[in-house]
Amino acid sequence: MTTIDEPTTADLPWHLRENRAPVTDEVTLTGLEVTGSIPPELNGRYLRNGANPLTGTSEHWFLGDGMIHGIELSNGTANWYRNRYVRTPLHANPGVDRMELGYIDPETISFNFEISTANTHVIGHAGKILALEEGAFPYELTRELDTVGPCTFDGKLTTQMTAHPKTCGETGEMLFFGYSSLPPYLTYHRVSAAGELIQSTEITVNGPTMMHDFVISRNHSVFMDLPAIFDMELAMTGGMPIRWSDDYPARFGVMPRAGGDADVKWFDVEPCYVFHTLNAYDIGDEVVVHGCRLNEIWRDGAEVGDPDSISDDEAPRMWEWRFNMVTGAVSERQLDDRFSEFPRVPDSKVGLQGRYGYTMSTTDDKTAGEIFKYDMADGGSRTSHVFPKGQFPGEPVFVPADGATNEDDGYLLTFVHDETTNTSHLTILDASSIESDPVAQVHLPRRIPTGFHGSWVAD
Ligand SMILES: [Fe+2]
């Protein structure tokens, strides 16, 4: 199967044009062309999720059916590329809205959390591979990307699950939350390193805030109660029912990881929205949070990412907040003026003070993409890998090298789309020498659409 999809036309909505257009088939490809040398210690699968509407169209970039793209590597060889839809009730009923499928029962005002696009992230935890979407249960997948079914942690999960759980780099515990348009608006969960759900706790927030992500430190979980809130009037008209509110306070809540609602210390911050945090850590009396901050979002509508319409206020930039747990003081500052999103740190550093963070550049350079490397020990100074003209990477995922001694001894993996050939490749960069040419590229005879988040799931 080597067909190259034709570029789509300019009259489609932004999220369906060019490389955001869905691919129309599922394939398994072997005998992949490789340039460079795949590091032999990379044994596992790089997986990435994204919205790929089965009908070819969707109301919003965030609403298409989840499709996982994966490449398996072992002993210096690329064994296969696969792309597979996550088999959800929405996939089984193409074109049917989740409300029509019974996502909310109007009699009992309760949710059916099996109704999911499962399109946002894919992670490994406790031997399971989970596809995630923030309005529903996770969906378990096999190593070959076939769908097992919804995962409820043995029936213990009774709320939505965010697509951005945080697995502690030290303990392997997975911490997450579910947010809802209906009370209770926020519920916090802890899953042990062995995969057992051991805590579910309601947390009080000011209203139905869209909480896409959160962050953990060694001792704390940090919630972002920000002014992007669910709007019933917008919900009745279809599409993305979220709007900005100047009346809704922006605040971060810091809670001991095994704590509860009464333990949350809330800190007012400058109004903002944060889709994605980089990481957090405890130091002295402070909790330090890094993330990609927008001044505001969706004041005039919920379109995202369109380079032709994004305003400076809606551009993401690397930011630092410091919360003093003793005095209640907050300080915050911008670390970089470049547009920077899809932040990641090494899995082993989640919740801990690490030195480096990695992001991809967004819309301020339309000719080629970049992967950024931030050195937080140097005030957030930035270096970057600049891709050749017409090549655009996604979120960079760090994988450590065998025998690593420095934090950046390892590789950055991401799918890259080449506009000049309309094909994609997996690129493997040396994280310790990010400016250098890729260590290896695994070439595909077709494109992988622009997507969301992914993971390296080691054997
Ligand atoms: Fe996300």
UniProtKB/TrEMBL annotation:
Its cofactor is Fe(2+). One of its GO terms (molecular function) is metal ion binding. Its EC number is 1.13.11.-. Binds 1 Fe(2+) ion per subunit. Fe cation binds at residues 164, 212, 276, 453. One of its GO terms (biological process) is carotene catabolic process. Keywords: Dioxygenase, Iron, Metal-binding, Oxidoreductase. Pfam families: RPE65. Belongs to the carotenoid oxygenase family. PANTHER family: BETA-CAROTENE DIOXYGENASE, CAROTENOID 9,10(9',10')-CLEAVAGE DIOXYGENASE 1. This is Dioxygenase. It comes from Ilumatobacter coccineus (strain NBRC 103263 / KCTC 29153 / YM16-304). The lineage of its organism: Bacteria, Bacillati, Actinomycetota, Acidimicrobiia, Acidimicrobiales.
